[in-house]
Specification:
mainly alpha; two-stranded antiparallel sheet
Length: 617
């Protein structure tokens, strides 16, 4: 309980839920300002207002590999609101059932608007205005959350003093990280502006930009990427996790931390209240006298067993679910590397043969589905282990220790002989098969280099007699094995609910598993856009285009400087560039003429018309 002696619960001046409603206005205003600062990528469609406003790009979760810590912190700051969505606290009381789904969609849209300025400002890492807006907005959120947790650190609702600070600590750390990141970017932008103004007196800005357009921003603005590389380089320097899997795992861990801590403290407080209520009822009404001392002791025993079962369920589930999150992180890497090597054998046929639009649609579901599956899997695992612990305690442990009646052991004594007979017959079958039913010949497997026994029967008459009697025996034992199979299916389904990197359905029906299908689709979309061969090839093309642009610029500068003559190398460079373009276009047309099947992949009707015009000539 709280250390304070207050009798009333804490009343916040501004709750986080109310602040999320209030923040929609400033967020929309910031989005409007940023969109006016952004130019349209394709001004040919609408030449007006100086090619403004433009469409903002908040975060590149597909192939962006910079500032992953900053984006992870931005997503991590949404952990508390994600739990609000998960718990349904955004739904007003007494709202009709039919309106809840629309309220849920409204809450999700509102949450996306609230946090949109964080990501939009992070996308422009070299802009002073964008960094300044992001700094002001992140400071606002940090101060509101800080005031919220420190306003009531000693209320009677808390189990211990400072409970809200501990719960909100990851979100506060993420917001503080964003404040520091935007502050560093503001300083870097100021220093970069001062340096460019100083250098403008001695350098041509156009030539400097053209020659240095491939250079990155100052390294001080990319310190988060370098820190991530330090942690990741020792494991595999040739592989980098995508931003989407990074932020997904980050938000999952933060939501799991808050959800687990809130669950533990809530149940702990409920158990404490139940013990205090039982003690007060004993003193006031003397339960031991009315119902007998046996009933009072059993109620105390039930509370104690329930508390111990809760500790076991919470501890085991927490360790297992954290291990699952890390395993998902590793599974993403292993399966994506297999896809890069061209090994698609682990993807079910029904999942890989879906249409491209279906794959993209399911890949968009991955991050949210992964977090939801982890939280629901955690909840269901705790509940299942808690129930199993109670059953084992009252049907086995407590009767053997003499704390409850031994009549509760009757189900155990009924099942135990069946289990013993089943496993005894099973291991006897293995022993008889090894000693009497198989030939004692061995061979070496060339694939695994292991010596194995030949699968050839010996003593066929013994084999026929054994198979005859076991035919009837396994009919009798089939009920037990059937129940065991059902129990195993339920147990594995509950335990592996959070692991959507593997299907929970039988082979051939994997495409019915929406969570697994979203993970497989996410992998295939990542492969199509982040394949290292594709990335290197595109980079080589871009470098070649940049070199040719720099060469043309240097030739034009020579002409402006009054040099009427061109060297042989300059003329050769221009002629090579022109001939290269002509040769490329001719080879493209020639390839399409000789391969009519490729014409269906053309994107524009104009190019098809040009191709037909060439064929008629």
């Amino acid at each position: 309980m709280a250390a304070s002696g207050t009798d009333v619960s804490c009343r916040h001046t501004i709750s986080l839920l109310d602040f999320t409603h209030f923040a929609v206005g400033p967020a929309l205003f910031i989005i409007l300002i940023l969109s006016l600062l952004e130019k349209r990528r394709n001004p040919k469609r609408c030449r007006c207002c100086g090619d403004r406003p433009g469409l903002l790009v908040p975060v590149n979760l597909l192939d962006g590999d910079q500032d992953r810590f900053a984006y992870a912190a931005a997503f991590g700051s949404t952990a508390t609101n994600c739990l609000i969505l998960f718990g349904g606290d955004y739904i007003p009381d007494n709202s009709p059932m039919w309106s809840q789904v629309f309220l849920a969609m409204l809450a999700v849209t509102e949450m996306g608007i609230d946090y949109y300025p964080f990501f939009a400002c992070l996308a422009k890492k070299t802009s002073f205005i964008w960094s300044l807006i992001g700094l002001a907005y992140s400071i606002l959120w940090f101060l509101v959350n800080l005031a919220h947790v420190f306003e009531c650190v000693d209320a009677s609702d808390w189990v211990f003093t400072g409970q809200p600070v501990v719960i909100q600590l990851p979100v506060l750390a993420c917001l503080l990280y964003l404040v520091i990141t935007f502050f560093i970017r503001v300083i870097v932008a100021i220093l970069t502006t001062i340096r460019s103004m100083t250098e403008s007196y001695t350098h041509n800005t156009d030539s400097t930009y053209l020659i240095n357009d491939n250079k990155s921003v100052p390294r001080s603005a990319d310190w988060s990427t370098g820190l991530w590389y330090v942690f990741n380089a020792r494991q595999d320097p040739t592989f980098r996790y995508s931003p989407r899997i990074t932020v997904t795992v980050t938000v999952a861990l933060l939501c799991l931390y808050e959800f687990g801590l809130l669950s533990f403290l809530t149940i702990e407080k409920a158990i404490g209240v139940a013990k205090a209520s039982l003690q007060n009822a004993t003193v006031s009404s003397n339960i031991a006298t009315v119902f007998g001392s046996g009933m009072y002791n059993q109620m105390k025993l039930l509370l104690y067993v329930g508390q111990m079962s809760w500790y076991v369920a919470f501890g085991v589930s927490s360790v297992v679910i954290v291990n699952y999150i890390l395993r998902i992180f590793v599974s993403y890497k292993l399966q994506l590397k297999r896809l890069i090597r061209g090994d698609h054998s682990f993807i079910p046929k029904h999942c890989s043969s879906l249409s491209r639009s279906t794959l993209v649609a399911h890949s968009l579901m991955y991050s949210g589905s992964q977090i939801a599956y982890i939280l629901w899997g955690y909840y269901m695992m705790i509940l299942s282990i808690f129930i199993i612990s109670l059953i084992l305690a009252y049907l086995l442990i407590l009767p053997l220790l003499g704390f409850v009646s031994r009549l509760l052991l009757e189900p155990f004594w009924t099942i135990l002989p069946t289990v013993l007979v089943s496993y005894t017959v099973y291991y006897l079958q293995i022993l008889v098969s090894k000693k009497a039913l198989l030939q004692n010949e061995h061979f070496c497997n060339n694939t695994t280099n292991k010596v194995r026994r030949v699968l050839a029967l010996d003593n066929r008459r013994v084999f026929h007699n054994v198979s005859y009697f076991l035919f009837f025996f396994h009919i009798l034992l089939g009920l037990y094995t059937c129940l065991v199979r059902i129990a195993k299916g339920i147990l594995l389904g509950v335990v592996f609910l959070g692991r959507i990197d593997r299907s929970g359905l039988v082979k051939g029906f994997e495409h019915w598993d929406t969570g697994y299908l979203s993970f497989v689709s996410f992998l295939q979309v990542e492969l199509a856009h982040t394949h290292p061969v594709l990335v290197v090839f595109c980079q080589l093309l871009m470098n070649g285009a940049r070199d040719r642009r720099m060469a043309r610029f240097s030739l034009s500068q020579d002409g402006r400087n009054g040099s009427p003559y061109k060297t042989f190398g300059d003329v050769e460079l221009l002629s090579m560039e022109s001939s290269y373009r002509v040769r490329t276009r001719w080879m493209k047309a020639y390839t399409l003429i000789r391969n009519p099947a490729l014409r269906t992949d053309r994107n524009t009707a104009q190019e098809d018309w040009k191709l037909q015009h060439l064929t008629t000539q």
